[in-house]
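Hi, here's the filled form for the chain we discussed.

Project: internal
Contact: R.S.
Residues: 299
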Amino acid sequence: MIEQSLHWDDLRVVQAIAEAGSLSGAGRRLGASHATVFRRLNAIERRLGVALFERSRTGYAPTPAGEDLAATAARVETEVLGAERRVVGRDLRLSGTIRVTTTDTLLMGLLSPIFAGFQHTHPEIVLEVAVSNQLFNLSQRDADVAVRPSPTPPEHLVGRRVGTIAQAVYARTDGAADAWVGPDRHLGYAALDAWMAGQGANQRCRYRVDTMFGMLAATRDGLGRAVLPCYLADAEPALTRLGEPIPELATDLWLLTHPDLRRVARIRAFMAYLAEALSACAPRLEGQPGRPAHSSGRA
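And the returned structure, exactly as it came back:
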């Protein structure tokens, strides 16, 4: 008699293939080779006596049976992750690991010394920092805490607004270039794109880059003027701010976590520490460091 029971690993294989649409893509998600995924899928289909995917040159498309199993896998994964968060949420010790996600500019320009201060205060807590310009999925435990600029944070997360990030136009101190440095489309900065278009700056934009650090470096090296976060650019002696911060580009800074984790002692301690430290940084964030702003001239 053939054993027909399904295991969680079987469901994960089916879910990965359905979501990726290919064996190689599923293998990357599962950390397995193309051949291993192929063998496991064939074994599952033989055991169940049903085809779960239609094979074609363009990839793998789930059959009705495959769709059913993939949907079941997604439900099971949600339940397992939810149970994990609830269990972790009962941990009252000031020890363990906190995985934080933030942007490269916030980490290097603002957060690194704050993280260092927290670790000195709580040496039993390990910090793992994931640097990305994309908001990680806190529901799937990609990260425990996010420190992110956002006008509208996801509704399923909890936290607080911890500041406002001001931005202004900067250029080299030894001469304001007439050309502009702008964001590449991969940076996904629609508000800045719209502002530059409204100022007529796009016609004189001769250099684009997909990170704020890249824009900062280009401005410092004389490739043109650029809109930069004040907390980052005000610290650069080679740059001069041209005018006051731009109101329509001000962005809220949020400290976020998943509702199931907000009662975890180490998460509470970390978020309280960051909120207090970032509150003290408000003048820097808002572009009030005490350095004079020069007339911006024409855009």
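Let me know if anything looks off before we file it.
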